[in-house]
Structure formats: structure tokens, C-alpha cells
Amino acid sequence: MLKARDIMTRKVISVSPETEVTKAAKILLDNSVNGMPVVDSEGRLVGIICQSDLIAQQKQLPLPSVFTLLDGVIPLFSQKNLESEAQKIMATTVFKAMTPDPVTISPESSLEEIAKLMVDKKLHTLPVIKQGKLIGIVGKEDVLRTIFSGED
To answer: Minimal CB count within 10 Å: which of 7, 35, 64, 115?
Structure first.
């Protein structure tokens, strides 16, 4: 049975939380990858930055819906979600635009587990972690390449 260690990309392209968003976008485009890990100075994974995180910056901030009851205003939105959306739109560094605490896998995760995670959680990129350190990454392309490598 194939495991993450068998299909992962070991030479991982990553950025630090302080990297400028424009530089991160260029790295993603230049390397034709959908997402990349964000690691601190000690190599610990702190987040993941994806093309969708960067595209979110082009979104307009939705105006919150409210209704009035007895001269009081009741918001129909989550203040936390609104703040999160605003932060992504105005981000200048990866730290402000990234998804923190991403879903990760171990080197022993099976191909079936990886595929299920990607489909169920709509993920394109899964960092591979061993003893708290980033050792590789599995993308949808890695999974597809593995599945279809035997067919010609």
C-alpha cells in the first residue's frame, strides 16, 4: 500500500510568515503550484498559503446585514468572520493572508487517507509532518500521477 512518504514531494517550496504577498504569488505562479507551506525560522509549519487565499484579496468586503428591533440593531453576521475577511483582503504579508493550522498528514498516511482528506475537505495541498517538522508535501498532482502512472 502506497504511503505519503512514497508519493510526496521532498523538495518543498515554502515561505515565511513575513514574506510579502506579491512575492508569494510570484513563487506560486513561477512554480505552477496551488499552495505552499508557511514555516517559521525553526522549520515548524505555521500555515499554508494558496492561490485561493491570494484571490480572496480581490474580493469586496460584504456589507453586514442587520435588522432593527425596538430601536436596537441586531447584526446577522459573525464579527469574527467579517474581521477575518477584512484581514485577508488587506493583507500585505503571508501571515495575514495564510490559512493557519492547516490539515497535515504523516509520512505513514495511506494514499486512500490522503485522497479522502482532499475530497472531503476540498484540499489541494497537504503538508507532511514528522516530529513537528515539515518533511514534504502532497498535492493533488502527486496523487493523480501515482494513480495514473501504470496506465498507458
So the answer is: 64
Average pLDDT of the segment spanning 16-23: 92
Secondary structure of the chain in the HEC alphabet? Answer: CCEHHHHCECCCCCECCCCEHHHHHHHHHHCCCCEEEEECCCCCEEEEEEHHHHHHHHCCCCCCCEEEECCEEEECCCHHHHHHHHHHHCCCEHHHHCEECCCCECCCCEHHHHHHHHHHCCCCEEEEEECCEEEEEEEHHHHHHHHHCCCC
Question: Which band of pLDDT confidence, cut at 50, 70 and 90, is reported for residue 152?
Answer: very low
- According to CATH, the topology of domain 4-148 is CBS-domain (3.10.580)
Quick: pLDDT tens for 92-102. 889 988 999 99
Q: Can you give the length of the chain in residues?
A: 152
Instruction: Determine how many CB atoms are found less than 10 A away from the CB of residue 137.
Output: 25
Q: Which residues contact 4 (CB under 8 A, 6 or more apart)?
A: 105, 106, 107, 108, 109, 110, 114, 126, 128, 136, 138
